[in-house]
Amino acid sequence: MAESAAIFSPVCHFLRLPLELRLIIYRFLLLESPECSVQRNSGIANTRSLSILRTNHQIYKEAANVLYSEVDVNLELDGIVCLQETPVCSTVTAHKQVWRHNPLFGVGQCSDGGRHDYEPPELAGFLEPHIFARFRRVSFNAWFNFIDAADASEPPIRSDEHCNLSAKDEIRLAEFLQKSMVLEHFAQIMSNSLLVDNLVISLNVSIDLPEKADTPTDDDVSMLLLKIHGRAMEVLINNGLLSPLGRLANVRSFEFEFWPAGPKGQSYVP
């Protein structure tokens, strides 16, 4: 009987490998691409070989640390807009295919059976807030479109021929920012994370070109856009666009990217 049990006793030869080799294997399985997006019709890391996480407790602990600390998670603007009661960015299509539960209500309470229980509302997405809160490298892409459009809730704004914004348009930008809760809600979601090693904020502001601008070359157009959008970005930042991020004491480092870029990769610098 004892001999039979010894024959069929499973042995995990994988754990006999040095940890350095196991980490290489975990990265091969989990980091096929170092980036993944939180967006419609896809959960986080859904194309990765996640079955390794179901092997045993030790392998889960080692492999999950690689997944949550080394994958860069990209959160799009529509993943925040869908959480708002009254979306203020109608140029972004709000949907409910990102989150299973609204992360603005927290990461949920873990029951004795290991299940997380949340306050309503329940959404129809793929990702639960307590899973997102484990990732330590996050980027957020936000595009604010102020070009004249019939279905845009952002105020249509056009610069003059000198690439300046009128005082009236600057006030309209400030008023829009007061109504928009996108960065406020994003900061609230990120506050649920225990630790974020790197947070990248990518902002894009679109303003209509002046009607009679003399822009004979592509480089001239790019420089004009850079100047116009940079001025609009400046107004938004001066009115507190990024202020909610100042409360995130759990973030080790911030990076900011401003778009669109001008010729030769130039971009707006606050």
Brief overview, please?
The protein is an alpha/beta fold and 270 residues long. It contains 8 helices and 7 strands, in the order ααβαβαββαβααβαβ. It has helices at 2-8, 19-30, 57-70, 78-81, 129-132, 167-179, 182-190, 218-238; strands spanning 35-38, 72-76, 109-110, 116-117, 137-145, 198-206, 254-259.
The biggest beta sheet, please?
Answer: 5 strands, parallel
Give the count of helical stretches.
Answer: 8
Strand order of the largest sheet: 1-2-5-6-7
Radius of gyration: 23 Å
H/E series: HHEHEHEEHEHHEHE
Q: Which spans of ≥5 residues are poorly predicted at pLDDT below 50?
A: none
Estimated share of beta-strand residues: 5-15%
Q: What percent of the residues sit in helical stretches (DSSP H or I)?
A: 25-40%
Based on helices, strands and strand pairing, what is the structural class? alpha/beta
How far is it from the N-terminal to the C-terminal residue, by CA?
Answer: 75 Å
Mean pLDDT: 81
Q: Count the strands?
A: 7
Would you give an account of this structure?
- The chain has 270 residues and is of the alpha/beta class.
- Helices cover 31% and strands 14% of the residues.
- Strands 1-2-5-6-7 form a five-stranded parallel sheet. Strands 3-4 form a two-stranded antiparallel ribbon.
- A hairpin with a 5-residue loop joins strand 3 and strand 4.
- Helix 2 (19-30) crosses helix 3 (57-70).
- It is elongated and about 80 Å long.
- It starts with a helix and ends in an 11-residue tail after the last strand.
